[in-house]
Every structure is written in C-alpha cells, then in structure tokens.
Design a protein that fits this description.
Helices cover 77% and strands 0% of the residues. By secondary structure, the protein is mostly helical. It has a single domain (11-187, 207-392), classed as MFS general substrate transporter like domains (Growth Hormone, Chain: A, Up-down Bundle).
C-alpha cells in the first residue's frame, strides 16, 4: 500500500508518534531510578533487574508479534500493546515494592517491543517505496520520544510532591488519547496472509542475510550502550558531580537522546552503511570520554560527552536500521523487524544484568570502565565488519530520494 492509497493522510505521522510514545515510556522511569534507590534502598542489581525485565518482555514480543501482525494485521497487535502500557502505568502509580516495578516493566517491555516491531512494519506498509527514509524517521521518533519523556519526567518529579506518581499519570493520559486515535486508524496491512499463526524463530530471507548481519551488529552494539546508560549511568553521574537534582539526570538523558535524533535526521542523505561505520567509531571515542568525564566530575564535560555519545549512537543505530529497511522484501517485513529488534533487546538485557550484578558486588564506579572497554571493542568489531563489507561489495543499493528531498 502506498501513502496515496491509504485513506487517512495522518496514518504515517501517527505511527511515528506511536514509536516516539513507546520509547518515551521505555525511558520514563530512568530519571527516577536514583529516587527509587534512595527512598526504597535498592541496590544497583535490583535497578538493573527492573530494567532488564523490560528487555525480557520485549524479547518475547520480538519473537512473536512480527508473524502475528503479518497474519492478522498491525492494528490488533498495537491495540493490545497500548492496553498493556496503560496497565503497567497503573502499576507504577500504586507501586510500593520492587516487584511491582518489575511486573510493570515486564508489561511495558512486551508492549513496547510489539510497538517498535509492528509500527516499523506498518510504516513500510503505508510507504513501501521509502524504506530508507522510513528507517531514518523511525530512529528520530524513537529518540525524540526518549528525550521529551525523560526531560518531562524529571521536571514533573523535581517540582512535584509526588515525584514517583505524577510522571506516570501524565503519560497515562497521553496513552489514552493515542488509543482513541488508534481505534479509528484504518488497518495499514491490507495484504494480511490470514494464515494460521505459528510461533517460530524470526526468519531472515537468504537474499538479505549478509545485510542483516551488518545491521544486526549495529543495533546490538548501540543498544548495549543504551541499556546501561538508561539504568546505571544516571546515579553514576549524580555521584560524580554531586548533583542530587532529578532534573540534572533528565538533562543528561534527554541531551543524549536529542543528539541521537538530530544526528539521524542530518545523516539521512548519506549512505547508511557508511553512516553506521562512522557511528560505531564515534561511540568508541565517546565511551572513552565518558570514563574521563566521570573521573573529572565536571558537569559540562558529562553533558557534552552525552551529546557526542548520543550523536554517535544515532549514526550507528540509524544507519543500520536504514540499511535494513532498504533491502527488506515486502512479504517479510514483520519477521525481519522481529529478528532485528530481538538482537536489540538481547543487547539491552544481557550487558545490563551483567553490569548490574557486578556493580552490586564491586561498585558501579569500578565496573563502568570495564563495561566501556567491552562495548568499545564490540563497536570496533562492527566497524571493521562494515568496512570489509564495503570493500567486498563494490556495488551497493542506492537510496531512493523521497519527494520532499530528505533521503535515508
């Protein structure tokens, strides 16, 4: 289906907004984790478990929702996902113990994993000939959602007498409005297979396996960084600088996410493979500077490095996503997106849990440089594989320039 064939002109923009909302909900508690740690006396391991169960829920979605949405349509899956988000937000509103947070985050992980996979496929349904541009806009929307929600959550918590309640109440109201719009959305996937749903491992067509390997390494590396920086890094920056303000944490997270969104937008006209390679190399530099910035305790250095790291993350993730969107066949969109985000959520869960467990025993400050070293080596490996791919494949798929002049 092309955008002209879809009866609702606002469908494409709504799907992007849904992606932004999903990742906004994923980052919503991040500025609040230091408050939970202080008021509830939670260890770094507990915080990372709360974060990691989100990734585990998302993994379940990534394994299932692509084929399901290919069979029955995107809209029923998205309705179920928004319902789960509302239930999770309700749990946050009444939470009093860590296990409440874990259940809420598991629900959010399953819901947000479904939205990222299914909305990504739906965007290709609505505009099938703008795959690379869809990938760029998807990446921008994801990071804009995190930036706005992290800053808004921090502001609401900073000046509210109920800092662990108000942010979730506000977002719940937004989700309710989005649900109304979703209910009137015309199903984007008109070529539903209608076949019996069979849960199987995500399948990648043999024709794009080499491309998928490159893109998969890109999301695995970049989302490893995202997982730890949304869970452990906020408290780490507070201790390094002496800032106890929740707003400071919100600024650090939103600066990183905003820079990521901007870098993906600006790089949309460049070759996605080359963009991802530059991003992986940039993450190595920015991660090293993150250790240096924490050691100095300089506020300006930490914020500036967060901007650089966000920009590099945006290039690495955005480039890999655009490249994959270029080459994915129409009849395998849901399955390929499932496989792609499966790698992303594995990258969130495994390094985050490992770092949290080690931090609880040895201290976050002692573990963080080692985490940086491991991820930097992985990013270097991704860049090397990307460069070898460029060398081995002199003929590459060219991008289709959209009418508005923004490609990617």
């Amino acid at each position: 289906m092309t955008s002209a064939q879809h009866p609702q002109r606002w469908a494409f923009g709504f799907l992007l907004a849904l992606l932004a909302l999903a990742l906004g909900v994923s980052g919503l508690p991040s500025p609040l984790y230091p408050i939970y740690q202080s008021q509830w006396h939670l260890s770094p391991l507990t915080i990372t478990i709360v974060f990691a169960v989100y990734a585990l829920g998302a993994l379940g979605s990534a394994l299932t929702v692509g084929p399901i949405s290919d069979s029955i349509g995107r809209k029923p899956v998205l309705i179920a996902a928004l319902t789960a988000i509302l239930v999770g937000l309700g749990l946050f509103l009444v939470a009093g113990q860590a296990w409440h947070l874990e259940i809420a985050r598991f629900l959010h992980g399953a819901a947000i994993g479904a939205i990222t996979v299914v909305s990504g496929a739906a965007l290709l349904d609505v505009r099938p000939h703008d795959g690379a541009r869809n990938g760029m806009l998807s990446g921008v929307a994801l990071n804009v959602g995190i930036a706005i929600t992290a800053l808004g959550s921090a502001a609401a918590a900073q000046w509210s007498s109920i800092p662990l309640r108000l942010p979730f109440a506000i977002v719940a109201a937004v989700v309710a409005v989005m649900m109304v719009a979703l209910l009137v959305l015309v199903e984007p996937h008109q070529d539903r297979t209608g076949e019996r749903i069979r849960i199987a491992a995500p399948a990648v067509p043999s024709s794009i396996r080499a491309d998928f390997s490159f893109s998969g390494i890109g999301i695995f590396t970049s989302w490893s960084v995202l997982g730890v920086f949304l869970s452990l890094y906020p408290a780490l920056t507070q201790r390094a600088t002496g800032h106890t303000s929740v707003m400071f944490v919100g600024v650090v997270i939103s600066a990183m996410a905003a820079a990521s969104a901007l870098s993906q937008w600006l790089s949309g006209r460049f070759n996605p493979r080359s963009t991802a390679i530059v991003g992986n190399l940039g993450m190595i530099v920015a991660l090293g500077c993150a250790v240096w910035a924490l050691d100095t305790g300089a506020t300006w250095f930490i914020i500036a490095d967060s901007v650089v790291l966000g920009a590099a993350f945006g290039l690495a993730f955005g480039g890999s996503l655009r490249h994959l969107n270029q080459v994915t066949p129409a009849d395998a969109r849901g399955a390929v997106m499932s496989a792609y985000y499966l790698l992303g959520y594995l990258a969130m869960a495994i390094p985050t849990i490992t770092a949290g467990a080690l931090a609880s025993r040895f201290g976050t400050e002692a573990i963080f440089p080692w985490f940086v070293l491991v991820v930097a080596l992985a990013a270097l490996g991704a860049a090397v594989i990307g460069l070898r791919g460029v060398r081995d494949r002199p003929v590459v798929i060219t991008e289709v320039s959209p009418p508005c002049g923004v490609s990617g």
